[in-house]
């Protein structure tokens, strides 16, 4: 009966072997052949192929030439030296390469869709490769997802491995340290994705606002946006406005009737610093609240009590 930790180490080796085959398919087959066609000017620009595959070549080389051989050697020597922790410690820092690939993933999938529509020869080339036995009836997009899922897989296997190690195992210290390192890398790639999404969303908001110079700042954070009624005491009426609340400013906007470029026109900007917000008990205009800042004071009406409370909060 094999000890539990050896079974997990063998599973790591087997999945790594399968993973290297998948990377070989992505880099040496899809990327290489699509690049060759692009160079002949038959399908899509070379830049597009490079953007789709990001840094897959580096990832493939690293796993095929370094990590897999090291792991194989470890498993061959298992009987006299049962350990994999040290090899995984060497692997962990290189997994930061995945940050770039993972960040690029959504864009890559989008590019495949766009260019498959634009260039039938490109679509045909991909379809041809997908028909090969090595693709196992799976699409290019499916194979491309594999590197995205690989780091969480290492984390799970290693957690299991550490759990099953006998207390006196010579690999305990190394394996625990390796797990900690893998955990940090997983956090790093998740943080990279979150930061990229934040910047993309922020950029989309800035475009809707017409990219006003004093507003575009990558460090801003959008907290809430939505339509609001502006109460006018003078005319005893309300008019439709739109608010964008950032961590440092409130933008009071007017929806544009003719939407060329921007969707909104910024009428007023109130700094959050020194701002006061309070609920008003106005019987004529329910769900109203007052926002007073350095620049101006506004009386605003929400559509419901809940919405008003959400804005105040």
From TrEMBL:
Organism: Sula dactylatra
InterPro entries recorded: DBL_dom_sf (IPR035899), DH_dom (IPR000219), FYVE_RhoGEF_PH (IPR051092), PH-like_dom_sf (IPR011993), PH_domain (IPR001849), SOS1_NGEF_PH (IPR055251)
CDD domains membership: RhoGEF
Protein name: FGD2 protein
GO biological process: cytoskeleton organization; filopodium assembly
Classification via PANTHER family: FACIOGENITAL DYSPLASIA PROTEIN, FYVE, RHOGEF AND PH DOMAIN-CONTAINING PROTEIN 2
Record-linked PROSITE patterns: DH_2 (PS50010), PH_DOMAIN (PS50003)
One of the record's GO molecular function terms: zinc ion binding
Domain of life: Eukaryota
Pfam families in the cross-refs: RhoGEF, SOS1_NGEF_PH
SUPFAM superfamilies linked: DBL homology domain (DH-domain) (SSF48065), PH domain-like (SSF50729)
Compartments it resides in: Cytoplasm, Cytoskeleton
Record domain PH: where: 221-313
Principal localisation: cytoplasm
Keyword Repeat on entry: yes
């Amino acid at each position: 009966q094999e000890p539990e930790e050896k079974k997990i180490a063998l599973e790591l080796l087997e999945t790594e072997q399968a993973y290297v085959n998948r990377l070989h398919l992505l880099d040496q087959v899809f990327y290489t052949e699509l690049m060759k066609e692009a160079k002949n000017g038959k399908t899509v620009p070379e830049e597009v192929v490079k953007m789709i595959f990001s840094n897959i070549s580096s990832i493939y080389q690293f796993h095929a030439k370094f990590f897999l051989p090291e792991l194989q050697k470890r498993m061959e020597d298992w009987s006299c030296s049962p350990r994999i922790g040290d090899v995984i410690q060497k692997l962990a820092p290189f997994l930061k390469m995945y940050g770039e690939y993972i960040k690029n993933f959504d864009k890559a999938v989008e590019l495949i869709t766009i260019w498959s529509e634009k260039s039938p020869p490109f679509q045909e080339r991909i379809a041809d490769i997908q028909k090969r036995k090595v693709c196992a009836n799976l699409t290019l997009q499916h194979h491309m997802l594999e590197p995205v899922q690989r780091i969480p897989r290492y984390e799970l296997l290693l957690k299991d491995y550490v759990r099953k190690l006998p207390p006196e195992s010579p690999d305990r210290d190394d394996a625990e340290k390796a797990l900690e390192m893998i955990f940090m890398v997983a956090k790093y790639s998740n943080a990279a994705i979150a930061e990229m999404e934040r910047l993309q969303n922020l950029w989309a908001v800035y475009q809707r606002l017409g990219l006003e110079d004093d507003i575009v700042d990558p460090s801003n954070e959008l907290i809430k946006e939505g339509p609001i009624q502006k109460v006018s005491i003078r005319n005893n009426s309300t008019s439709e406005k739109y608010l964008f609340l950032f961590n440092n400013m409130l933008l009071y906007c007017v929806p544009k009737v003719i939407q060329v470029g921007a969707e909104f026109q910024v009428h007023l900007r109130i700094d959050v610093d020194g701002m006061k917000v309070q609920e008003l008990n106005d019987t004529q205009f329910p769900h109203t609240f007052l926002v007073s800042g350095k620049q101006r004071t506004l009386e605003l009406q929400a559509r419901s009590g809940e919405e008003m409370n959400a804005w105040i909060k």
